[in-house]
C-alpha cells in the first residue's frame, strides 16, 4: 500500500479511507503469504479472500475466506478430529508406516499421478494468524491516533468557534 498522507485535522473521510486501505492491504498480505507458502494447487483459497467494511454505531471490518484456509494454517485435514486434545495418532511414525502413509501416493478425486502426496505428515503453513494479529495491533494503534486527532480537531473547532463568537460580541460592544 502506498504511503497515504492524512491531512490535519483528521476528518471522518480520512479515517474511512484508512480503514478501507487496511482491509485491502490485509487481503494483499494474505495472498502473498499463500503464494510464498505454496498453497496454490487450485488457487481457490487465494481467490476466495474477500473483505467488507460497514459503518454504523461501530465500524466493522470483515474478511472472509474458505474454511479450508484455517485447516491449512493449522496443518490439519482429513483424519484429524475435533476435541482429541492434540493427540494426533496420524502423526505417530509407526501408525503412518502401518497404514502406508509414509510413502508418496496419489491424492484427490481423480487419483492421478499429477497430484501426489509426499508421504510426510502435514505441516502448519500459517498464512493467516501471525500477520493478522500483528496487523490488528497496528490497526488499533493507528485508529486510536486518528480518532484522537479527529476528536481534538472537533474540540478545537468548537473552542475556536466559541472564541470567535466572544471576540465578535466584544468588538460589537466596543463599537457602540
How is this structure best described in words?
Helix 1 (12-36) runs antiparallel to helix 5 (129-174). The N and C termini lie far apart (59 Å). With 176 residues, the chain is mainly α. The longest helix has 46 residues, at 129-174. The protein is elongated and about 90 Å long. The mean pLDDT is 75. The chain has helices spanning 12-36, 44-48, 68-74, 93-98, 129-174; strands spanning 50-54, 60-64. It has five helices and two strands; from the N terminus they run H-H-E-E-H-H-H. The relative contact order is 0.14. It has a two-stranded antiparallel sheet. A hairpin with a 5-residue loop joins strand 1 (50-54) and strand 2.
Explain briefly what this protein structure is.
The protein is mainly α. The chain has helices at residues 12-36, 44-48, 68-74, 93-98, 129-174, and strands at residues 50-54, 60-64. A hairpin with a 5-residue loop joins strand 1 and strand 2.
Percent helix, as a range, is 40-55%
Q: Looking at the chains present, what oligomeric state does this protein adopt?
A: single chain
- Count of helical stretches: 5
Could you describe the largest sheet, including whether it forms a barrel? 2 strands, antiparallel
The overall average pLDDT, rounded, is 75
Morphology call: elongated
Radius of gyration: 27 Å
Unreliable residue stretches: none
The proportion of strand residues reads 5-15%
Helix-and-strand structural type: mainly alpha
* Total strands: 2
> Can you write the helix and strand succession as a string?
HHEEHHH
- Kindly, what is the distance between the CA atoms of the first and last residues, rounded to a whole number of angstroms? 59 Å
Strand line-up of the largest beta sheet = 1-2
Amino acid at each position: 500500500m502506498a504511503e497515504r498522507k492524512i491531512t490535519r485535522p483528521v476528518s471522518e473521510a480520512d479515517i474511512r479511507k484508512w480503514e478501507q486501505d487496511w482491509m485491502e492491504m490485509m487481503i494483499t498480505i494474505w495472498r502473498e503469504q499463500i503464494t510464498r507458502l505454496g498453497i496454490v494447487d487450485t488457487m481457490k483459497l487465494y481467490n476466495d479472500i474477500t473483505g467488507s467494511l460497514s459503518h454504523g454505531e461501530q465500524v466493522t471490518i470483515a474478511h472472509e475466506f474458505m474454511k479450508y484456509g484455517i485447516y491449512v494454517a493449522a496443518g490439519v485435514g482429513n483424519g484429524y478430529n475435533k476435541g482429541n486434545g492434540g493427540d494426533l495418532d496420524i502423526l505417530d511414525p509407526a501408525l503412518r508406516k502401518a497404514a502406508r502413509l509414509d510413502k508418496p501416493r496419489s491424492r484427490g478425486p481423480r487419483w492421478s499421478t499429477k497430484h501426489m502426496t509426499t508421504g510426510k505428515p502435514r505441516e502448519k503453513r500459517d498464512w493467516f494468524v501471525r500477520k493478522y494479529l500483528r496487523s490488528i495491533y497496528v490497526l488499533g494503534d493507528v485508529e486510536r491516533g486518528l480518532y484522537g486527532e479527529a476528536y481534538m480537531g472537533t474540540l478545537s473547532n468548537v473552542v475556536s468557534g466559541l472564541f470567535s463568537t466572544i471576540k465578535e460580541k466584544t468588538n460589537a460592544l466596543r463599537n457602540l
